[in-house]
Design a protein that fits this description.
- This protein is of the alpha/beta class.
- Helix content is 49%, strand content 13%.
- The protein is built from 12 helices and 8 strands.
- The chain is elongated, with a radius of gyration of 21 Å.
Length: 288
């Protein structure tokens, strides 16, 4: 039996025709790692947007859980688009709920396959205290030692929270400071401990690194010294962001137990999806 009904597929196609432009259709399917195929329908398909959706549909095996999970991601990415009207969101939500799907913010799941809370287990206060002491001690290190130690600290922090971190690795022409996974999403990591705040130019370089890897990759830029105000404002202006930011202050809030690391990442990612904002502080998340 097909896991997604022809009715929902048709309704979502028509939703795309009414509410999205061609570039946006490419974006939502591309971010979900759905390849563009070629429709083999015998019936004529009118309109470029309708034909484009059918081309993406042509590459999906509707009997495959893996393919359907990608399709549900595309639905979720659609909910995340800031340009949608509230009326359009309600319409799409009704289509999904009629299908028996569970909608959690920007995530869409089949109710039988609703994900478990993988990160519910509490982190040891002792482990957080040791990490905080390590972070505080970095200020006394020489600059050439500090960057390496900071990366090592972050790997230990992600490991404590079970986010399967990977250390730095070298690609042709560039350095990636590491990666981690959360809710099946892979994040590439850039970490800098500079005395000066990180400018827009560094953010743009990192975003390009992430974009060049895969359509589903995301990124986190951790700057101990914060980001310039102009960089934060200008960075997300006029286009979507595939990276989020974290600062030294954010790290201390996490190590003090104000908020767990996984909750911080998920809430920052959700804020970025809803507003296009690259950075929101943990202070604002906790008290906002």
């Amino acid at each position: 039996m097909e896991l997604i009904s022809p009715l929902l597929r048709t309704d979502f196609r028509e939703f795309c025709v009414t509410n999205l432009v061609l570039r946006q259709i490419h974006d939502i399917f591309g971010m979900a790692d759905i390849q563009q195929g070629k429709s083999t329908s015998d019936r004529p398909i009118s309109g470029a947007r309708r034909a484009l959706v059918e081309d993406y549909y042509a590459s999906i095996n509707w009997y495959s859980e893996a393919d359907v999970d990608k399709y549900l991601k595309a639905l979720g990415y659609t909910f995340a688009q800031t340009y949608l009207t509230e009326e359009a969101r309600i319409s799409l939500r009704k289509c999904c709920e009629r299908e028996g799907l569970f909608i959690d913010g920007i995530h869409v799941h089949r109710k039988s396959g609703r994900p478990r809370d993988t990160y519910a287990a509490p982190v040891s206060p002792t482990a957080l205290a040791e990490l905080k002491e390590l972070l505080l001690g970095m200020s006394s290190l020489e600059p050439h030692q500090r960057g390496f130690t900071f990366q090592k600290f972050l790997t230990q922090l992600f490991d404590v929270y079970g986010l399967t971190p990977r250390g730095s690795f070298q690609l042709v022409g560039e350095q990636i400071d590491g990666s981690f996974e959360i809710n099946s999403d892979t994040y590439l990591l850039e970490a800098k401990w500079h005395t000066e705040q990180i400018p827009q130019s560094d953010l743009l370089i990192f975003r390009e690194k992430v974009e060049n890897k895969s359509t589903w990759a995301r990124g986190m830029f951790i700057s101990y010294s914060n980001f310039t105000e102009d960089g934060i404002k200008a960075f997300a202006r006029g286009r979507a962001t595939n990276i989020i930011g974290m600062t030294g202050q954010d790290l201390f809030f996490i190590l003090d137990g104000e908020m767990s690391l996984d909750d911080v990442i998920l809430q920052k990612a959700r804020r970025a999806a809803e507003t296009g904002e690259f950075f929101v502080s943990v202070y604002d998340l906790v008290r906002g």
